[in-house]
Amino acid sequence: PHDSICGCSIDQVHEEMRPRFDQVEQIGEVIAGQSLSALAEAVDSEAIDATAPGVQAGLAPHAAVVVFNAAAGAHTGLVSAAVQAPEDGHALELIDEAGNLVPFQTLGLGASELFNMVMGRKEIRDSFNMISGGEVMGLKIVDFQMRREGSQAFIEMVMSEKGEPNPAAWEEGRRQMEAYLADPELTSYQIRARSRAAAEVLFSAADVPGCGCRTFWVRSRPAEARPPARLSPLARLALPLAGRLGSSPVFQRLIRRLAPDPAEKGPFQIENEFLAVEAEADGTLTLTDRRSGVVFAGLNRFVDGGDRGDEYNYSRPDADRLAAARRLRARVERGPACQVLELWLEMEVPLELTPDRRGRAQKTVRMPVYTRVTLARGAGAVEIHSEVENAARDHRLRVHFAAPFGVEEAEYDGHFEVVRRPAELPAFDAEWVEQPRPEAPQRAFTYICDGHTALALANRGLPEVEVLRRADGRAEIALTLLRCVGWLSRGDLPERPGNAGPSEPAPGAQMPGKWSFDYAVIPGRAEDRLEIFQQARAFETPLRAVSVAVKGGSLPPRGSFLKVSPKE
Q: In sequence order, which ranges of 149-228 are alpha helices (DSSP H)?
C-alpha cells in the first residue's frame, strides 16, 4: 500500500513489514544467484584469444570469472568472486580476453583459518626457529606477508599440506621478520595462518557490456614473474585479510592496507585515473575532476536540524539549531583495485524538541558518523557508504553536496522519465491548501548542470532530495538520510492545515539505532549528460560475478544479451 511503503503508518505495521522485505530479498537472491550460475556455466570460457601475446607468454587459465552487468549501458565497477587457488602454490594472476593483467586485491574469503594468536617477541622468535625451508609441522608456506600498525606487527601466512613451499615468499618474509624483531618499538605480533583452499578476489571490471557479461580468467603466476612496478614495496608484500564485498560495512574495513610511498600523495587523499578525493579538516570532501580540472569543495557535509512534523510532512521549528559534524580521525587504504578513505565523525545533536515544540532542547547527545569513500580503478564515480547511530528525537539529518556553480533548475530521475523542476519555489498565498516544499522526490539520481559542468548524486533507496541555493549563489544538493518524528499525523503544523491521517503516536518513527546509507557522486561535463544518467542508474545494480571452470559453452565470453536504443 502507498502509505506503508513510504513510511506513513503506525509502528506495528512497519514491524510486520520487516519479515516481508526479508522474504523478498532472500527469495530474490536465491533466484538471481541460480540464474547467474546457469548463465556462467553456459559461457564458452575456452574462447580466449590464444594468439594474444599476454596469453601466449603465460600459463593456461584454470578458472574463469564471468562478470554480469544488469544496467542498460556498459559499466566499470568493483566486483568480487571466490576462485580456486592453484595447486602448484604459485600466486594468482587475473587476465582479460587479450591476456592483459587485471590488478586485483585478495580478500581471503573461503579459506579455513588454521590458527590466530598474539605473541610477544620471544614467543614469535621461538616459533620462527621451528620453520625450516618454508615448512613447519608438515605444512608448506605458500605465501607470507607482514605489515605493522603502531607497536603491533601483523603476520599473515597461507599454508598447504600439498605441493612445495614458496621459497621466494618465505625468504622475503624472513628478511622482513628479522627487521621487525630488531625494532624495539614493536611489542606484539599477531600471527594468522589459513589454508589455501580458495581466494576471494576483488577487482575493477572495466567496460562490462550493458545487460550482458564479460569474462576474466585466473591462472598461476609464472615463477619468474614479479609484481607490476606500479605497486609499492609494501603493496607487494601485502597479504589478504578476510572481508566481504557488498552492502556490509565489514568489506572495506577489512581490505588490507597497501600504502605506496607516503611522499606520493597527501595523507588523506585517494585517486584514480579520473578523480581525486581529499578529506578536509572539517570532515567534508574535496573532489577534483582530473579530466576537466574542476574542483568540487564541501561535499558530504552532514547537517542536522530540528523537525516538529509528522510522517507525512517535514516542519521546521521556529527556533531551529543546526548541528554540523566534526572529524575525529581518518585513514587511507590503497590497493591495486581501489582506494578507500575512511572517516570517523561526530555530531552533537539536541536530544529533542522543547516542550512547546517551537525549538530544540539545550541537552545534546552524541551522534557518531562513519563514512567510507571508495574510488575504484577506472571508475568515474565516487561511492560513499555512511553509518549513523541515532539516539536523538525530532530531527532531520541530511548530507550536502555543494557545486562550484549555480542553477535555475535540476533534473530528477522519475518513473519512466527524468523530471525537470525549477530550483525556486512558485509564488503562493493563503489559497494554497498546503505550502509548496523545496524537497523533491527522486529515484536513482539528481542532476544539476550550468551548461558546462555537471554534478549528479546517485543513491540506493533515498528518495528525498533538495537542490538549494547558497548565500554565494552556488547550488547545493541536500540528500535526506533520516527524518525522526514521533507522530503518524499532527493537526498543528503551519505547513499543512489539519491532519493528513490518524493522529496516532509512532515512537518507532524516531528511528533510534544504527542506520546505513549508500550514495555516489558523479562529476562530468554537460555533453556527458546521458552517460552520467547511465552511471547513476548502474549504481543501483552493482556488478556481480560467478567463478566457473574453463570449458566450452554456447554463450560468448563477452557481449550483451539485449541492447537498448537509443540511449535516451
A: 167-181
Q: What is the DSSP letter of 360?
A: B
Strands (E), 417-543: 418-422, 440-441, 445-449, 453-459, 464-469, 475-484, 513-525
Bridge partners, residue 39, by sequence? none
51-55, 382-386, 387-391: which range is least confident on average?
51-55
> 131-156: string of b/e by CB count within 10 Å (b at 16+)?
beebebeebbbbbbbbbbeeeebbbb
Torsion region of 81: left, alpha or beta (phi above 0 gives left; psi -120 to 50 gives alpha): beta
**CB-CB contact of 511 with 390 (8 Å):** yes
Per-residue cell: 209: 557490456
d(CA 483, CA 315): 11
Please report, as a single letter, which amino acid is at residue 240.
P
Beta-bridge mates of residue 478? 400, 466
The reply to whether omega before 53 is within 30° of 0 (cis) is: no
Dist. CA 502–CA 391, nearest whole Å: 26
- Residue 445 CA to residue 536 CA, distance in Å, equals 6
Round to whole Å and give the CA distance between 135 and 72: 51
Between 138 and 38, whose confidence is greater?
38
Contacts with 23 (C-beta within 8 Å, 6 or more apart), sequence order: none
List of long-range contacts for 173-180, beta carbons under 8 Å, 24+ apart = 173/141, 173/144, 173/145, 173/146, 173/237, 174/128, 174/144, 176/146, 176/237, 177/128, 177/146, 180/146, 180/148, 180/153
The torsion angle over the Cα atoms of residues 14, 20, 25 and 31, rounded to 10 degrees, is -160
The CA distance from 327 to 304, in Å, is 15
Angle in degrees, 0-180, between the axes of helices 167-181 and 121-128, rounded to the nearest 10: 150
Question: Residue 8: which residues within 8 A CB-CB, separation 6 or more?
Answer: 311, 312, 488, 489, 500, 501
Name the grid cell of 352: 529533542
Q: How many residues make up the chain in this entry? A: 568
Residues 6+ apart with CB under 8 A from 427: none
HEC assignment per residue over 110-133: CCCEEEEEEECHHHHHHHHCCCEC
Answering whether pTM is above 0.70, one says: yes
CA 421 vs CA 138, 268, 409: distances in Å: 70, 37, 6
Is 373 in contact with 286 (CB distance < 8 Å)? no
Model confidence pLDDT, tens digit, residues 338-353: 999 999 999 999 999 9
Region label for 448, one of left (φ > 0), alpha (ψ between -120 and 50) or beta (otherwise) = beta
Give the phi and the psi of residue 237 in degrees, each rounded to 5. -95, -5
Rounded CA Rg of the chain: 26
**Interatomic CA distance for residues 193 and 239, integer angstroms:** 11
In the block, residue with C-alpha cell 594468482: 92
Instruction: Give the cell for residue 401.
Output: 553536496
Confidence label for 377 from pLDDT (cuts 50, 70 and 90): very high
